[in-house]
Amino acid sequence: MMMLMLDSTSPHAVTRSSVLTVVSYDLELDFNGGPDTFSSRTEMRFRANRPGLSSFADLKAAGIRRAVLNGAPLDFETSCHAGHLPLPDLAHENLLVVEADMYYTSAEAGLHRVRESDGNDCVYGKGYPEGARRIYCCFDQEDLRAPFRVSINAPAGWSCLANGPLVSRPDGDETGAWRFAATQPIAPFLSSFCAGHYASSAFSCPRDNDPPLPVAVNFRPSMNESVNAVLQPELVSRPLRYYERVLAAAYPYVKCDLVFVSRYRPLAYGAPGLITIQEQVLAQAANDKSGLYLAAVLAHELAHAWFGGMFNMYESDGWLIEALTTYISRCALGELHPGIDPWDASLSRTLPDHAYVKYAEPVRQLAELIGTQAVLDGLISLIHDRAHACVTKGDVIRSWSRAGG
Q1: Which has the minimum average pLDDT: 75-79, 186-190, 226-230?
Q2: How many CB atoms lie within 10 A of CB 209?
Q3: 253 pLDDT tier (thresholds 50, 70, 90)
Q4: What is the pTM of this model?
Q5: SS3 of 43, please?
Q6: Pairing state between β 121-126 and 193-196
Q7: What is residue 266's predicted lDDT score, i.e. its pLDDT?
Q8: What's the rounded Cα separation, in Å, for the pair 358 and 378?
Q9: CB of 404 closer than 8 Å to CB of 371
Q10: DSSP string, 182-227
Q11: Does 4 have pLDDT greater than 70?
Q12: What is the CA radius of gyration of the chain?
């Protein structure tokens, strides 16, 4: 599940977001090294609203090989400390290039490299909290969004996934670069990467007003039977069409990848265009007599495409993202599975998002007060007015106030 843990309300972060606008990230990652470190190269273009300002970028590296701002080398050996890379004397238009060696992590957020039970390695990202700065140099806060263009160099036989759609890949099973198209503007903590020995199956989700959405399900080859036993295309297509209809907004990304990962710490994480799920969910779904467990996981993570993906919130209001996601995904379950009430206490306790019900309860109470359609109308207005932005609880309340009179 997606929880926003970044603190962009600190004085330094507020100052940075008030003077900087990030234009784009061009990111190169290389996983061909040993089990402890990988290499990262970032080209970040950004603007400062007043030339001559100083700021900083976020970076927690094993070692920096090169850091250049607007063609001038930075003195990172003496000035980079506490995860901050000082950026002095900014121009209006800026280009920062940083090449660094980064640590894989086992406990913290960042990039994890794990040994699968079949003896193969798998790499996956966990961007929150403060995980992006452990993968590449960035402005690691939720209100500084930008498009990401990603290239991943991986060992022979590996498959790679990122937020954007795949543009090119190595021939056959050779080592080489996997290149991905630019994303919509996203915050660094929403950037996501997976790589390893994966099999894949694909299908298209029909939609009412848009072309079918390509969906790919990725998994270790040994999990093929487990995936096919429980994951049916309608578990993705039905909630997708429901959200597009009730929120009056198309799924905001051009593809949706699902990847099942062993030893993944969260139950699941719905990053833009790439949903990462624990392999254990497959076993849980196989033993689930109600047939709702996997449906609830997928409905919840798909809803994050709108709530948390299309717009996100500051850390202090982060609970509201889970409130909105849980409310709308449970509404979807109730409509798409006639005869069940996902809010019923005995059933709710068996669903994977039960911990978030306490956050969603105020939204349910509001729906009783102003009506379900007014709640939805307020969300529709917010999505259309603030797409690809960071909003506050006050923005949500004002939108509901207008919708509910």
Answers
A1: 75-79
A2: 9
A3: very high
A4: 0.94
A5: strand
A6: antiparallel
A7: 87
A8: 21
A9: yes
A10: --SSB-GGG--EEEES-EEEEEEE--SSSPPEEEEEEE-GGGHHHH
A11: no
A12: 21
Per residue in 305-339, pLDDT (tens digit) is 999 999 999 878 889 999 999 999 999 999 999 99
Contact 264, 184 (CB under 8 A): no
Q: Phi and psi dihedrals of 255, rounded to 5? A: -155, 165
The answer for 375, left when phi > 0, alpha when psi is -120 to 50, beta otherwise, is alpha
Which residue, among 94, 90, 95, has the nearest Cα to 54 in the 3D structure? Answer: 90
**Residue 41 to residue 28: CA distance in whole angstroms:** 5
Summarize pLDDT for 288-305 with one digit per residue, the tens.
Answer: 988 899 999 999 999 999
Torsions phi, psi for 248 (to 5 deg): 50, 40
Report the percentage of the chain scoring pLDDT > 90: 84
Which tokens sit at 207?
Answer: 């939609």
Query: pLDDT at position 12, please?
Result: 52
Supply φ then ψ for residue 98, to 5 degrees: -130, 125
Q: How far apart are the first and last CA of the chain?
A: 33
Q: Following DSSP, what letter does each residue of 121-154 receive, concatenated?
A: EEEEEE-TTTTGGGTS-B--STT--B-EEEEEEE
Contacts of 120 (CB under 8 A, 6+ apart): 196, 197, 220
Spacing of C-alpha 263 from chain mean position? 18
- The first and second tokens of residue 61, run together, are 């590296």
Mean pLDDT, the chain, rounded, equals 93
Tell whether the model's pLDDT for residue 340 goes beyond 70: yes
Q: How far apart are CA 163 and CA 170, in angstroms?
A: 19
Q: Which residues pair with 47 in a beta bridge?
A: 21, 93
Show Cβ contacts of residue 43 under 8 Å, excluding neighbours closer than 6 positions. Answer: 25, 26, 27, 95, 96, 97
With CA atoms as reference, report the closest residue to 266 among 327, 322, 184. 322
Residue type, 324: L
Residue among 155, 185, 184, 149 nearest 167 (CA): 149
Whole-number percent of the chain with pLDDT over 70: 97
Contact residues for 107 (Cβ-Cβ < 8 A; gap 6+): none
